[in-house]
Every structure is written in structure tokens, then in C-alpha cells.
Design goal:
Layout (H helix, E strand, L loop, with lengths): L24 E2 L23 H26 L14 H8 L7 E3 L5 H6 L4 H8 L33 H14 L6 E6 L6 H12 L4 E7 L2 E2 L2 E2 L20 E5 L3 H19 L2 E6 L19 H8 L2 H11 L5 H23 L6 H5 L22
Parallel strand pairs: 1-7, 2-3, 3-4, 4-8, 7-8
Antiparallel strand pairs: 5-6
Helix pairs in contact: 1-2, 1-9, 1-10, 2-7, 4-10, 5-6
Bound molecules: thiamine diphosphate and magnesium ion (MG).
Length: 382
């Protein structure tokens, strides 16, 4: 027995000793090095059934092809606002959201259209939203990502990076008070992970052991700022140590790995053990938005990711190699997605633009605008 415990012949009762600090980062599903010349595929270590994998494939294709269609609409000037794409990162949003229950909540950022589809939003809503049409979810008040659907457990993002994390924490606290066992999944970029709100939101969830899962998307850039000029940590998952919560690193371009890691986090969080931080390693192949020509990206970098680490190519390779699907089956799924996109785009295009008075309603508290400054269209509102 150590000297200090021998006093009075009894074991001394001091403060409970905590085990030494240990960084808890799980790297089981982190990106793996493959032998030179060997193309990347997906992890085989999965509980997913073949039909679920085909559903994941459908969501991946839907995300990519809907975004391509929005770019077409943008070039035709039918979309006039910013167009944000998740090209090359689709697997992170799709795989993670697929691990949730339908009553769980997400709050996506601009690279997470795939998670919105998994939550049950239809392409027609996205097209109508981007074209600011009356039939769109915000009725023409916004023309890109600022809308949500509470029924479907989808909290719309605001522009201010990081601020949706404390909001999600609040939702989870309210859910606990209502004795609901939902979990919340908040997405954030590597740039957004440098904000104060990111720290405050996760810290509160960690202390309260709220079931908050935060996915930080390491996509190499925030606007034109490379991640190493954004943070001094090598892995964003290391930030989990600041909160005393488990951290995971996942290959964000492996849709199965993203599902499995999030599933583990969901089980952990739902069982009452608290918050989790997941870092998804991925790459933003398009600029911040469609107008960004990416002149700050070193030559050959984008092409390398496109050729060697595209999430859809990797998953197709996996599905074919593992004989989960034939090429014909995958083509059939893609054709179905294209049909849905054509139909939904036509529907959205046929929507009228909103009446000016209706679109202006519910944006400001018109009663506080001095009458002299009230534009004509607001005269009859309130
Ligand atoms: C608090 C705050 N600061 C700055 C901005 C402007 N801004 C919008 S998106 C963006 C870059 C975001 O980068 P990241 O978080 O890495 O997400 P990504 O676009 O790479 O998905 C910035 C700086 C903002 N919206 N909110
Ligand atoms: Mg980023």
C-alpha cells in the first residue's frame, strides 16, 4: 500500500482519483492508405443490408444530379442567388443522416443537401426554393438554403456559422424535458468550427450529457482559406478533448463508413452518455459557391480528388465488386432519379412567383418600420 494511504491503518479517503487524461479518438473508419495503384472502395465492415445500400446509392446520385440541375438553372438565370454544391462530399451528409431515426433532428450547412433528402425533402421543394417560387418552402422569401421542416426534423440553417449548434443543443434540452429520446445531428465546416458558438454549444451539451452529434466537415477550405490557416490542430476531432467527449475520424468519402460511425455515435448519444464529435475527412471540389473560380487551389489538386477519391465512384466500385448490384441495376436507379428530377423541375418551373405583398410578409415586423420608409408593397400588410 502506498505510504500516503497507510495513515491510521486505514485507506485514506481523499478526493476520487480520475484516470489520467486520454485523448479518445476512434479511427476505425478513418481514411486508410491503400497499396499504390489500388483504387479506393468502401469499408466492408457494415451492418447495412443490400437494399439499404442501394437506397444510399440513390440518395448519392439524387444529391449530385439535383445540384447539377440547379447549376443549369443558374446558367439560364432562372436561379439568381448563390449556388452551393457538395460535389465530392455527398457521402458525408447521406451516410450520416441515414443513421438517424425519422424523429431525430438535423441542422445542415451548405454542403449537406444529401442529408435533407434523407430526411424526406423532395427535389421539387429544392428547385422551387432556389428559384424563389411561390410553391417553394419559403414561399419565395429566400432563394437557396434558408428553410427547414420541423415535422421532418430538419432545422433550416441561418448564414451565421456555428450558431445552429447551440440551437440544436437547446432543442435537445427541450426534448429531454419532454421525455423524448431523440438525438440531434449538427453539421459544421472546418471554418465554422473556429467560431465561439461551436464551442459554447458543444460545451453545454457535453456538460448536460445531451445527445448532440456534431459532424465537422474537413473539406480543406473555408472560402479560400485552407484548413491549416484556420486551426492549429492536425485533426479537427482533437477538439473533442476540450469538451471531454469522444471524437471520431471518419473517411467522409466512404458512405458506409459515414453511416457506421454515425450509427455508433447515435447509439452512444441516445443511451444517455452524451455528446460526440465526428470529423469527416473529405474535399470540396467546387468553389465556395458557383461564382468562385477557385484560383487559390494548387494546380492538379481538384483533378486528383476527382480521379482517385470520388465518393460515388468508390461506392459503385464497392457495390459491383461485392456483387450487391449489377451495372444495369445502378443505371436503372440513376434513370429513376433523372425522371424524378425532370418531373420535379418542371413542377417547380410551373410555379408562379410569389405575390410581392405575400413575399414581404413575415420577414420584418412591419409595424416598427416608420410609415415614411414603408415601401409601397408593405402598406397593406400587418
Ligand atoms: C460567423 C460567420 N463568419 C463568417 C461568415 C462568412 N462565411 C460564410 S461561409 C464561410 C466559409 C465556411 O467554411 P467552412 O465552415 O469550412 O464550410 P464549407 O463552406 O467549407 O463547407 C464564411 C467565412 C459567416 N457566414 N458566419
Ligand atoms: Mg470547409
Amino acid at each position: 500500500m502506498p505510504e500516503n494511504q497507510k495513515q491510521n491503518g486505514n485507506r485514506k479517503r481523499g478526493p476520487r482519483r480520475r484516470p489520467p487524461f486520454q485523448m479518445r479518438i476512434n479511427t476505425k473508419y478513418a481514411p486508410k492508405k491503400v497499396a499504390d495503384g489500388q483504387p479506393l472502395s468502401c469499408t466492408k465492415d457494415t451492418s447495412l443490408k443490400p437494399e439499404q445500400m442501394l437506397e444510399l446509392y440513390r440518395y448519392l446520385k439524387l444529391t449530385r444530379l439535383v445540384e447539377e440541375r440547379i447549376v443549369n438553372l443558374y446558367r439560364q438565370t432562372k436561379v439568381v442567388g448563390g449556388v452551393f454544391r457538395s460535389l465530392g462530399q455527398e457521402a458525408t451528409a447521406v451516410g450520416s443522416a441515414y443513421a438517424l431515426r425519422s424523429d431525430d433532428f438535423i441542422t445542415p450547412i451548405i454542403r449537406d443537401l444529401g442529408s435533407v433528402f434523407v430526411k424526406g425533402i423532395r427535389p421539387r421543394q429544392i428547385f422551387a426554393q432556389y428559384m424563389a417560387k411561390a410553391w417553394g418552402p419559403s414561399g419565395g422569401k429566400d432563394l437557396n438554403v434558408h428553410f427547414g421542416d420541423m415535422e421532418k426534423g430538419f432545422i433550416g440553417p441561418i448564414s451565421h456559422l456555428g450558431d445552429m449548434i447551440p440551437v440544436m443543443t437547446g432543442i435537445l434540452l427541450a426534448a429531454r424535458m419532454q421525455k423524448k429520446d431523440i438525438v440531434g445531428l449538427a453539421y459544421i465546416g472546418d471554418g465554422g468550427a473556429s467560431t465561439g458558438a461551436f464551442f459554447e454549444g458543444i460545451n453545454f451539451a457535453a456538460v448536460q450529457k445531451l445527445p448532440l452529434i456534431t459532424i465537422v466537415e474537413y473539406n480543406h477550405y473555408a472560402y479560400s482559406t485552407p484548413t491549416n490557416m484556420q486551426t492549429a490542430v492536425r485533426n479537427l476531432a482533437e477538439k473533442s478533448a476540450a469538451f471531454g467527449i469522444p471524437g471520431y475520424i471518419v473517411d467522409g468519402n466512404d458512405v458506409i463508413a459515414c453511416y457506421e460511425v454515425t450509427k455508433q455515435a447515435v447509439d452512444y448519444a441516445r443511451s444517455g452518455r452524451g455528446a460526440v464529435l465526428i470529423e469527416a475527412k473529405t474535399y470540396r471540389r467546387k468553389g465556395h459557391a458557383e461564382h468562385d473560380d477557385q484560383r487559390y487551389v494548387p494546380g492538379g489538386e481538384i483533378e486528383w480528388w476527382e480521379k482517385h477519391n470520388d465518393p460515388i465512384d468508390r461506392f459503385e466500385r464497392f457495390l459491383l465488386d461485392e456483387k450487391i448490384a449489377t451495372k444495369e441495376k445502378l443505371d436503372e436507379i440513376t434513370a429513376g432519379v433523372m425522371r424524378e428530377i425532370d418531373e420535379d423541375c418542371e413542377w417547380a418551373e410551373s410555379s408562379p412567383m410569389p405575390e410581392a405583398e405575400v413575399a414581404a410578409h413575415g420577414v420584418f415586423d412591419n409595424s416598427i418600420v416608420p410609415p415614411a420608409f414603408r415601401p409601397k408593397i408593405l402598406e397593406n400588410s400587418n
